Amino acid sequence: MFGFLTEVGFSAYDVALHSLNIGHHEYKRWGEADFFLVGRRGILLLEVKGGRVACKDGMWEFTNRNNETNRKKEGPAEQAKSAYFSLEKNYLNPKFYRELHGVPRGWAVVFTDIPRLANDGSTLLPEHPDEITAYEEDCKGHNSFKKFLARAYDHWASKQRNAVELSPQLVKAISDSLRPNFERVPSLNSQLRDMEQRLYQFTDEQYEKLDAISENERILVAGGAGTGKTFVAAACARYEEAEGRSVLFLTRSSYLAGFLSNQGLPSGVTVATIDEVQRFHDQGKTWDVLVVDEGQDLCSLECIDLVDGVLTGGWENGRWRWFGDPNYQVSPSFPVDQDCLDYLKSKGVATNLKNNIRNAGKIVEAIKLLAGADVGKPSSKPDSGIVDLQLVEAESEILPRAVAAVRKWLSDDEQLPRNSIALLVPSSVEIDKAVDLLDSKNVRSEALSKRALGGKPRDCVLVATIEDFKGLERPLVCVAGLGQEHGFASSAYKGISRANHGLTLVATREAVAELTGKAANHGAS
After folding, report:
1. Measured in Å, how far apart are the chain's first and last C-alpha atoms?
2. Burial (CB count <10 Å: 0-12, 13-18, 19+), residue 161
3. Helices then strands (H, E): number in the chain?
4. How many Cα atoms within 13 Å fall on the side-chain side of residue 143?
5. What is the mean pLDDT of residues 39-57?
6. Average pLDDT over residues 158-184
7. pLDDT per residue over 432-442, tens digit each?
8. Helices assigned H by DSSP within 309-337
């Protein structure tokens, strides 16, 4: 419900108060409202019931996901009604009686996990009319949930002779009165926890791709940075191993391979880099299934021929899953042989990942603006995330400004883990400088290594080159300068796309002007 309500709004100033405690209740020593909505359309109290729900001989039973059952004489509608009238009598009317005249207000009940109880087109729960009751089908997504909320507001509006809307000023006054110290913007650490929870949940698109992948012997999956290729590739490896097949999970980056090796993949999955394949070939080793991640970096005749010998059936008749980034023209780490890519396409089915699950909306927009790359439609709200572009005049200003940005993240939220931050630099020359400068500012950090990616995460800011960090990610990323080896656009694409939620890019005005094609004549924003 919390996630739905962040997506749903009838105005920009709607407020949802979660777990609102009611110290003065009509007949309870203490009460609570699951959600209390105050917005343009009016006031609505939501009572939410998840898990199994039953009513036997007038006794209600609620069983949660831990199989714990709670029994009450009072049903959800009665709970919602009594909580609402307690709030109205003890908190709203004393301060806002006149202002609330004509404003739609009332309560509703949400059963998140059970279908609607119906017989001959009418509900079997008279105390739960459909106008103010949501069921499983109403909770499939934020759009269906918004339709339910509109239905509930319409119901309570019909009880008013001349329904009126709440003004932004009154919404703020009511919410401030009910929760005067409420921080509407969650702490950065809290935002990262919510982001992480969403990040490691499969989307509908990813489930569809897994179905398509399992039904084909050979398939190419293309997707820009942030579309979840590595996540889906790892799921494919687990699925194939569970089906009794041996799996070779192949990539070029030793850091990405090291990271994947520590993700709990089953023993039947071998994670390796392309540099190890010749040894496998010499030893006569073969695997039933090949999973390739960052495939655009392995798209050469030499790589294709080498891998062919360790896959049962080879590229022609073997079982393989190839994941690659179609933006290789923007960020060419290794030359892509178009003939090799066409060869793979002729042997397998091609599909695309179109939704960006890793990068917040503002970061997706920054990638498009500064790198000119399409990384899919953001699954989060377009205005989600944090992007801070800091422009400097000289290269020598970049690293000190970047370190200051990292320190600010940590000082703004003392609970923020240092290992949620990566500081990316254009070349290995800057790594030691960055680590030393962070240390001088009392910020613990470490350079990227297999040790840093393995086992229990160390509470250190991770410092790496933009190129070495390819395929990896962090909730917060500070990009300290744009390298010119493959061009500013390539550096921007690889660096910016590593950030999940927050990005700070420190670059010279000259570099950004070249990227955007216009003079960057404004200050840091």
Report:
1. 34
2. exposed
3. 19, 24
4. 0
5. 87
6. 83
7. 999 999 999 99
8. 314-317
